[in-house]
């Protein structure tokens, strides 16, 4: 009997080791390291990088500050939520998505103060398929924080993939925050992160079986309820960076 148990244990060990090795290899391939390559970066100084393109541009609602090099977007009332397959949100600034693994990072300054206002970064195909990490406001969702929160949205075929994806924003932090989305092709996952100093990062949520996408980018919206908003949200972006792991860099 003991020999049978020992042999069965060895069989399980033989099966589990390759699985563990594969899992660790995927984790390593999707982690950021000093040898990774920056394949795109815009510090928003002077003018936009020529690789960008706008979806639903309203030139009166965006500008670049010559003094500090920030892209400022004044949110409109259109929203990615509950729209059609075509992107309806105003001033969505996008790039073609890289192939294989990548990580996109942005530093921004924004302080939503009315329900459903939000600003952040997207990995997106259209209005029915996208993943976003955002700074948003929802008093009912995060009453302890006064309504301001870090939120992750994931939608496939217009159906949410995540539930209760709210992290109350601590009240002792200011309006600046860094956000990150990391795509891992090995398990088709997208993980969201946030940081208040750009150095120490916290994982927000992870999406498995990520929706299809062909673009990455940033945006802001008032996303108003029936009563509209009293004041437009303004989101200011310091930089946008795309990194590709060294193992998949061209």
Question: Please, could you describe this protein's structure?
Answer:
It is a single chain. The chain is mainly β and 250 residues long. Helix content is 11%, strand content 41%. The strands form two sheets. Strands 1, 3, 4, 6, 12, 13, 14 and 16 form an eight-stranded antiparallel beta sheet that branches. The relative contact order is 0.24.
In percent terms, what proportion of residues is strand? 35-45%
Shape: globular
Structural classification? mainly beta
Q: What is the β-strand count?
A: 16
Task: Summarize the structure in short.
The protein has 250 residues and is mainly β. Helices cover 11% and strands 41% of the residues. The protein starts with a helix and ends in a 6-residue tail after the last strand.
What is the strand and helix layout of this fold?
Elements (H helix, E strand, L loop, with lengths): L1 H28 L7 E6 L10 E3 L6 E3 L6 E4 L17 E5 L5 E9 L7 E9 L2 E9 L10 E9 L2 E2 L5 E3 L7 E9 L4 E7 L6 E6 L7 E7 L12 E11 L6
Antiparallel strand pairs: 1-16, 2-5, 3-4, 4-16, 5-15, 6-12, 6-16, 7-8, 7-15, 8-9, 9-10, 9-11, 12-13, 13-14
């Amino acid at each position: 009997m003991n020999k049978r148990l020992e042999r069965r244990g060895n069989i399980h060990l033989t099966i589990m080791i390759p699985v563990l090795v594969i899992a660790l290899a995927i984790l390593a391939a999707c982690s950021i390291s000093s040898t990774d390559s920056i394949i795109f970066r815009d510090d928003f100084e002077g003018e936009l990088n020529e690789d960008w393109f706008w979806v639903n541009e309203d030139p009166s609602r965006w500008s670049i500050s010559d003094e500090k090099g920030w892209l400022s977007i004044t949110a409109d009332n259109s929203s990615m939520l509950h729209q059609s397959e075509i992107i309806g949100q105003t001033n969505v600034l996008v790039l073609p998505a890289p192939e294989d693994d990548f990580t996109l990072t942005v530093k921004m300054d924004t302080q939503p103060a009315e329900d459903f206002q939000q600003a952040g970064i997207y990995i997106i195909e259209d209005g029915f398929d996208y993943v976003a990490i955002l700074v948003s406001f929802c008093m009912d969702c995060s009453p302890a924080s006064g309504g301001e929160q870090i939120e992750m949205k994931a939608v496939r075929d217009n159906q949410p993939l995540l539930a209760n994806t709210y992290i109350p924003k601590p009240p002792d932090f200011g309006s600046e925050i860094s956000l990150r989305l990391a795509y891992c092709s090995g398990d088709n996952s997208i993980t969201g992160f946030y940081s208040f100093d750009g150095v120490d990062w916290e994982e927000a949520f992870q999406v498995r079986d990520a929706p299809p996408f062909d673009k990455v980018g940033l945006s802001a919206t008032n996303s108003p309820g029936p009563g509209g908003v009293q004041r437009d949200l303004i989101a200011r972006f310091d930089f946008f960076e795309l990194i590709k792991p060294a193992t998949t860099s061209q």
